[in-house]
Amino acid sequence: MGKTVLYLAMSLDGYIADERGGVDWLAGDGSEPDAPGSYPAFLDTVDVIVMGWTTYHQLVTELSPDRWPYEGRPCYVVTHRQEADQKDIFFWNGELTALVDKLKGEYEGNVWICGGASVAGQLWKEGRIDQLWLSIIPTVLGRGVRLFPELSQEAPLKLVRTEPWNGIVDLVYEKR
């Protein structure tokens, strides 16, 4: 059985998007512009993807409007909207934890929690995230959308891997 992995990028000061929800600041420092980073290797471990409506909408309207970037992998979009499923894209309006539990039981590879803050926060509070894989972007935003705006208790972690590339540092943590 795979893990539920929250894999995403954030600014050095803990934001996953700017005040307008933008992510155009997601870049390294240019020191290794051709470095592939961790994404290709990570994606090879992923069997299924979960994301919130905002992340999905940003993908299809702004970041990749002409081509679905996760073709061939089932993707579940958590939303209250009534949308028709598409090829490899399923709209889920049930309980989020039930979805993740179901997917972990059905797939052997990792369940990627792709975004955003609401989905990540709910799953973290319910203890459903097995691994945090954070790409720390060398940018300080000062304000925006926090990864975890408020948590009711401390969450001790164990660092299992680091990888620097192009000024970005990947930090991989698991719960202690």
Describe what is shown at a glance:
The chain has helices spanning 39-43, 53-63, 96-106, 117-125, and strands spanning 4-11, 15-17, 46-52, 75-78, 89-92, 110-115, 131-137, 145-146, 157-165, 168-175.
Overall description:
- This is Dihydrofolate reductase.
- Residues 6-163 form the Bacterial bifunctional deaminase-reductase C-terminal domain.
- InterPro entries: DHFR-like_dom_sf, RibDG_C, Riboflavin_Biosynth_HTPR.
- With 176 residues, this protein is α/β, with parallel strands linked by helices.
- It has helices at 39-43, 53-63, 96-106, 117-125, and strands at 4-11, 15-17, 46-52, 75-78, 89-92, 110-115, 131-137, 145-146, 157-165, 168-175.
- Strands 5-4-3-6-1-7-10-9 form an eight-stranded mixed β-sheet. It has a two-stranded antiparallel ribbon with strand order 2-8.
List the helices and strands and how they pair.
Layout: E1 4-11, E2 15-17, H1 39-43, E3 46-52, H2 53-63, E4 75-78, E5 89-92, H3 96-106, E6 110-115, H4 117-125, E7 131-137, E8 145-146, E9 157-165, E10 168-175
Parallel strand pairs: 1-6, 1-7, 3-4, 3-6, 4-5
Antiparallel strand pairs: 2-8, 7-10, 9-10
